[in-house]
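Notes to self, Protein kinase domain-containing protein:
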Amino acid sequence: MGSNSSKTKIDALERQQQALMEQNANMAKRLAEREEATKQQDEVGIEQMVMLFLAMALSSETVMNNKKQEIEIEGTTYEIIQLVDRGNIGEIYKAKVRNKDMLVAIKAMQNTPGLQEEIKNEIHFLRLTKEIPIDNHPIIEYYGSKVTKEGIFIAMELAACDLETFWVNQVKQGESEKIAAIGIIIMVYVLRALAFLERLNIVHGDIKPQNLVIVPNEQSFCIKLIDFGTVEKMITQRAHVTVDASRSATPFFVSPEFLRRNAKNLVSRHLHKKSDAWAAGVMFYLLFCGELPWKNQIDYDNFCNDQRAKDIIVPDIGGYKMIIELLLKKNPDERSSATATLMQLKAHPTFGKIIESLHTNFCPVDDVCHMKVPNDVRQGLIKIARPGHYIDRSDSSSSKGSPEARRSCRYGSTCLRKDADHRAEFAHPGDSDYQASGASGTGKIQCSYGAKCYRHDPSHRQQFIHPNDKSRDNPGKQKCRYGDGCTKRNDREHMKQYLHD
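result:
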């Protein structure tokens, strides 16, 4: 009797378990179907957003007047159709390759002595970067050039409009949802273009909405950089270069280190490797907030030269607050680079999904961060360094105290460079000033995003320390009993064995 009762209970439990398993399986199936439906819905939303962006860009084309004329450039005859833009140094015409349907832009400028060096620099840069094999190239495509006594003419890819025209005509007065949707696309592809330059150790020097254009590409588009007469090749051992007094600058978009005045009250004219990232931060602030952080140029100049002036506080809008604030760090060594910002957006739980969809369905996003640069291109870029532009080794934009303070080498104990220039600028684990240069006791640099960092890729986690890292306490090391007073910081074996706070 008892055995029958037990068997009945066991059978009942097995049936309940089987029913529960079937219920869980059905629930898992429904969740998977719901997730797939949500993913498809998100992709449709992204596709609609991109199509809207493209349509808006095409409708922003400007025409100033029609002009019929022909010009031959490097063996190709172009038929000038119309004037589309007029700037400080020249005009942009829409043109057509004779006997073909191909449309191009012709940039026409007067041949003046002061302009020749800039144009030579621009053509050299455009020719070199054209040799880098990458899809949806972030640099406007170069077709050829012609120099006469009267003028200089450059044939290049035709864009629909620049970002300033696009934003003013299509987005500025729109709903907040529209601004947020279009804004993330602009932010991602502007950062992609700047990350491309960072990969080449190049500073554009005049990043602003007018120098970023939208180029239609079949059913998609690409945001590309133009106007490279001001580009600078950064020497890899140094983070900054000083340019000559003739260098022009666009108010607000030029970085604080450029406008900072020295003891003689002269503008320093320093360009840092993250100066372009500053300009991007100003663009994004203007894009999402609808105004600049400063009232006027005098207010901005005071901000750049007042040591007590604090970093810009960005309103908490759309989740971009910290991202833009780190691009607007007054001290360039604390400023986020375009590459780091792009990777942080990619790792973000919300923005990352949008970026993944953009990357998969339209234009690549982070391909520029690991692209291969041919050696002949790297060698050619070295020639961009110009007379009058020099490395100021006494500059100390990164140090808040002594001008002799070194910065932490980002590679820490894994650094393979032994050359004097590198060792003079960067401190390494075991150096007496390694702590003073911003490194943690683990030999890693503090991540600027802190606990809000979304990146978990090994390359980032090996280089930077975060508040919640388990490795922060270094359980495998004993604490040195002398702490900050330890005199054996130059002893590598000692530093490997003991932890210093």
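- Residues 159-237+247-385 form a domain with the Transferase(Phosphotransferase); domain 1 fold (CATH 1.10.510.10).
- The first strand starts at residue 65 and ends at 73.
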